[in-house]
Design a protein that fits this description.
By secondary structure, the chain is mainly beta. The chain has 3 helices and 17 strands. It has helices spanning about 1-20, 95, 230-235; strands spanning about 60-65, 65-70, 75-85, 85, 110-115, 120-125, 130, 150-155, 160-165, 180-185, 185-190, 200-205, 205-210, 215-220, 225, 235-240, 245-250. The strands form 5 sheets. Strands 4-5-6-7 form a 4-stranded antiparallel beta sheet, with no helix packed on it. It has a 4-stranded antiparallel beta sheet with strand order 11-12-13-14, with no helix packed on it. The longest helix is centred in the N-terminal third of the chain and has 20 residues, at about 1-20.
Length: about 260
């Protein structure tokens, strides 16, 4: 009986050992990789819209033979002159706040306002007329909070200078002036940087541009410089030498 039990124990041990050896690893299935779809290629930029100076618009209004078009920063006409009026590519707040949601996109700075045959349009940078103005589409502008100007013109003995309003106390003390009165005329242009505005000034019957440190930015060689929004909208000045033909120059005195 004892011998039978010993044989049985040996048999059971062999059986268990053989079962452990026979356990197979589960094969890993090799799943095929799902191909990644490449995104659509980006729209290629127009090579004619060159950017030489980031502070300037890529398209600049220019007049030729009594018609306005747009040139690039190299002075090449990209949009041919055919308009009576052409302004910088800039936001139109009336369209941005239009009651017609479909036309609000034309109020962004991707478009510019032009006028031809007494009809006003918005055009894109390719020169295509994408929208014709309608009174019913115009909304109310939501004006930004006014930026209080730090400097203002000051007249003394018939000459113009510049003062910083918060610091000016004594008109008889030259040290209280930012620029002591010495110009025939002076106008502080509206811009985004109230600490360093551009100032249109007249000296010896010629117009130029200075900064608040009385440094000449644009030489005094023009018969007039318009006091409009050209500096605020396009970082440019609208100038003339003959009093009739106006054109744009930048702060580097480059003509467009």
């Amino acid at each position: 009986m004892k011998n039978i039990l010993n044989v049985l124990c040996v048999f059971i041990s062999i059986f268990v050992f053989s079962q452990a050896k026979s356990v197979k690893k589960i094969a890993v299935k090799h799943t095929s990789k799902t191909p990644v779809k490449k995104g659509t290629s980006a729209v290629k930029p127009n090579p004619d819209l060159v950017i030489l100076h980031k502070d300037l618009p890529v398209l600049i209004p220019k007049k030729k033979e009594d018609k306005f078009g747009y040139v690039n920063q190299n002075g090449k006409f990209i949009i041919q002159p055919e308009y009576h009026i052409a302004v910088f590519f800039y936001e139109d707040c009336n369209l941005l706040n239009s009651p017609n949601e479909k036309v609000r996109k034309f109020g962004t700075d991707d478009y510019a306002t032009v006028e031809k045959d007494m009809i006003s349009y918005r055009i894109n940078q390719a020169g295509k007329r994408v929208y014709q103005f309608k009174d019913s589409d115009l909304g109310k502008c939501k004006f930004e909070e006014y930026k209080q100007q730090l400097f203002q013109a000051y007249v003394l003995n018939g000459f113009y200078g510049v003062i910083e309003k918060s610091k000016f106390v004594n008109a008889a003390d030259y040290r209280d002036y930012q620029i002591y009165p010495q110009y025939e005329y002076l106008y502080i242009m509206e811009g985004d940087d109230v600490k360093d505005p551009m100032i249109v000034a007249s000296h010896n019957d010629k117009f130029g541009v200075i900064d608040v440190n009385n440094k000449i930015v644009i030489p005094f060689e023009y018969s007039n410089i318009k006091r409009n929004f050209s500096w605020k909208l396009g970082k440019m000045f609208e100038v003339t030498k003959d009093g009739k033909n106006y054109y744009y120059i930048d702060a580097r005195n480059k003509t467009y």
